[in-house]
Every structure is written in structure tokens, then in C-alpha cells.
Design a protein that fits this description.
Transposase_DDE, Nucleotidyltransferase, domain 5, five-stranded mixed sheet, Transposase_HTH, 3 domains, 15 helices, Transpos_ISL3, Transposase for insertion sequence element IS1001, elongated
């Protein structure tokens, strides 16, 4: 067995393809060597066109693909790719078995790059590792995401959660839709307005789903999201996410703290002492909090209302929980604390969606976990300039897609 046979076996080549010659040359771009494998096909071999008709090569086109490194050396495959004439007279290039159409990399090279990204390596670092430019790696990445998405099915989706996240700090938002049952992202689109829901329903139905099957939509109280759901998913039950509700309540409590802070140095540096859960505070912070709440009765009452509000989520019976929430609203209004009056008004104006939580017990907890993964990837990559790259990275991280690149061979 000679070296060409060894490389033929290593590449998994079969008739009509074979390794014609092997060259180990000095690199023209950097120090070191490069391995160049020249492939050819058997003379007179008949290739099949799309209709199944067999014909010999009309002519050939010289192509080069970057392959996985041979030890520390870059490796390239060279081949004369045949073109054949179909029965209708059109000329087509034959698809080679080691690379996909219109790619400058072999399938194994692309699978290795995807494996590195899956291992949480930023694309910029992957490009350095495999000695290819970042835009080329992004094109490979986006191809396989698009391919996997085209095969994704959404026919079983009945409960969704939706939330927005930013591509850059404070702006350039995308909206994420997740299947709450399968705990995965099923759609991502630019913006955070009502049109995102329409975009989702179109994608849903293009993949075998039905908007009539959507029973529950869990989300925050964004007017744009509410409008979009009512317009495009009229049969779905809106459930306002309890985590966003608690977040809004904490902002309300902080407004009271800020108002009390003016001219009172004793409250300086105690923002998170007030906002954190009491059980999560250290012994020293608990003592400081108790003293602060005693010295500032209005803040103390606001804090007490926050703690009483949290009890509503521990009540198992839906009707009892709704009754307790109404009682809490009346109690908060009686205290005449302006930020709390606004908070109560917000609850009553969204009563149906807020209290639906007690019946359905559905939250956006899945999306909160997904968003944590997205933010970590965003920090590692130091942001995403291209929104489509960002969207596809979200799919890659959280959509549980099935890829068919030859990972088993690596």
C-alpha cells in the first residue's frame, strides 16, 4: 500500500474518485509546510444527472478545498470536477462527495469548525484556529443553521413564551419565541413590536404548525406584544410572566427608596440591601435593613407591601390567590404611596393576563435561562455587528436543531 492509497482510505474515497498524487510543499503564506492532495476520477466514468440519465463528462473545472490540518500543516484538496450535459441540454457540475456545492471547505473541515463553535468558542477564535477568515466561517455557520431550520417541524407547538433581548447594549432588539413544552427556541426575528408576532405565525405555519393550536402565550406586559398577540393569535390565552411582574414591583419599591434617599445620607449605599430577598442578606445587612426600615416608615411600609405581595405565589388554589391579590391591591391603595398606586393601577388594567398565571402556572422561566446563555455568548464574542449572525447563534445555542454534517467522522 502506497501513500496515495492511505490518503484515499483516510478521505473515504470510492469509485470513480482516487488520489492521483500527493505534494508536501513550502507554504506561500506562512512558515511551515502544506499538504496538497490531487484527486481525479476514472476516465470514461458515467455520472448521473438529476433525471437519472448517465453520461460522461462534458468538460472539467479545477477546484480547491481547504481540509482539516495534517498535523500542524494546512491541507488542501485539488480536483478536476466534471461537468455533464443533461438530457435537456443544460450543463451541470457534478457534486463531489467530500464537499457541498459552492463551498471552499471540505465537509469535515466545516464539521470541525461547527464543533468548535458548539464548544463555546467565539467565531473570531475559530477563524484563528482553523486559519480561515471570520466571514468565511460565518458563511459556513449560517449555511448549516439555515439547513437545519428548513427541516425543523413545529406541528406540536401549543404553548409559547416570548421576550426581547438586545444585540448591543440598550438597543438593536430581537424577539425570541420559545416552545415552553420542549424548552427550546423556535423563532427569532428583528424588532420588538407587534409585527414580530405576525412574523412568528408565518414561520409557524410554514413549518407545519397552526396558530389555532396555540393555547397559551406567556410574555411581559409590552403593549406592542399584547397588540400583536390579539391580532395574530386571538384564540390564545395571554399569561403575563410573573418574573416581569416581580421585576416591576421591585422597580416600584426602588422609586420609593429613591424618593426617601433625597437629603438622607443614611440610605446611601443601601439599594440592594432593600431590593434583595431578606433571606439572601448577610447577618450584618439584615441588621442594617431592619434599622433603615425603622428610621424611614414610608420605605418600611413599601418594603412590607413587597413582602406581602410575594406570598400570592405560594397560594395553590387559583381562586384564593386571585382573592388575595385583590385584597393586596386594596391594602396598597390605602397606604397612599404614589408609586404603589401606579403599580396597582397596572395590575388592574392587566388583571386577566396576570391572574391567568394562577390557573395555568406558566412562566417565562425557560426564556430566562435561554437569555442567560445568549448573554454569555454575546460577552464572549464582544457583541454581534451582523444581526443575522446573532439570530443564527441564538438558534444554534437554544433551538435544539439537528445537524447532518459528518460529525461522526471527526
Amino acid at each position: 500500500m502506497n501513500s496515495t492509497d492511505i490518503f484515499r482510505i483516510a478521505l473515504g474515497l470510492s469509485s470513480p474518485w482516487y488520489v492521483e498524487r500527493v505534494e508536501f510543499l513550502d507554504s506561500t503564506s506562512e512558515k511551515g509546510k502544506e499538504l496538497h492532495l490531487h484527486l481525479n476520477f476514472e476516465r470514461g466514468y458515467k455520472f448521473s444527472d438529476s433525471s437519472g440519465l448517465s453520461t460522461t463528462a462534458y468538460d472539467t473545472v479545477d477546484r480547491v478545498w481547504q481540509h482539516l490540518n495534517f498535523f500542524q500543516h494546512r491541507c488542501y484538496l485539488h480536483a478536476r470536477v466534471p461537468r455533464i450535459k443533461s438530457g435537456d441540454g443544460t450543463i451541470h457540475q457534478v457534486q463531489v462527495p467530500w464537499a457541498r456545492a459552492n463551498s471552499g471547505f471540505t465537509l469535515l473541515f466545516e464539521a470541525y469548525a461547527m464543533l468548535l463553535i458548539e464548544s463555546e468558542m467565539p467565531v473570531s477564535k475559530v477563524s484563528e484556529c482553523v486559519k480561515a477568515t471570520a466571514p468565511r466561517i460565518w458563511r459556513v455557520f449560517n449555511y448549516w443553521i439555515k439547513r437545519a431550520l428548513s427541516k425543523d417541524k413545529l406541528d406540536t407547538v401549543t404553548q409559547i413564551g416570548m421576550d426581547e433581548t438586545s444585540r448591543k447594549k440598550g438597543h438593536n432588539y430581537v424577539t425570541i419565541f420559545a416552545d415552553l413544552d420542549q424548552r427550546r427556541v423556535i423563532h427569532v426575528c428583528e424588532g420588538k413590536d407587534a409585527n414580530t408576532v405576525e412574523d412568528f405565525t408565518k414561520a409557524l405555519e410554514s413549518k407545519g404548525g397552526s396558530k389555532e393550536k396555540i393555547e397559551i402565550v406567556s410574555m411581559d406586559m409590552s403593549p406592542a406584544f399584547i397588540s400583536g398577540v390579539k391580532e395574530n393569535l386571538p384564540d390564545a390565552q395571554l399569561v403575563f410572566d410573573k418574573f416581569h411582574l416581580v421585576q416591576s414591583l421591585n422597580k416600584t419599591l426602588d422609586e420609593v427608596r429613591i424618593a426617601e434617599r433625597k437629603g438622607n445620607d443614611l440610605l446611601k449605599g443601601h439599594k440592594y440591601t432593600v431590593l434583595k430577598k431578606y433571606d439572601n442578606l448577610s447577618s450584618q445587612n439584615k441588621s442594617e435593613l431592619d434599622y433603615v426600615l425603622m428610621m424611614y416608615p414610608k420605605l418600611g411600609e413599601a418594603y412590607r407591601l413587597r413582602e406581602l405581595f410575594m406570598d400570592v405565589f405560594t397560594i395553590a388554589d387559583p381562586q384564593e390567590a386571585k382573592g388575595y391579590l385583590w385584597f393586596w391591591c386594596d391594602m396598597a391603595m390605602d397606604q397612599k404611596i404614589e408609586p404603589y398606586k401606579k403599580f396597582v393601577s397596572m395590575i388592574k388594567s392587566h388583571w386577566s393576563g396576570i391572574t391567568a398565571y394562577f390557573d395555568k402556572r406558566v412562566t417565562n422561566g425557560v426564556l430566562e435561562g435561554i437569555n442567560s446563555k445568549i448573554q454569555l455568548a454575546k460577552r464572549r464574542a464582544r457583541g454581534y455587528r451582523d444581526v443575522h449572525n446573532y439570530i443564527n447563534m441564538i438558534y444554534f445555542l437554544s433551538a435544539k436543531l439537528k445537524f447532518d454534517y459528518p460529525l461522526y467522522s471527526l
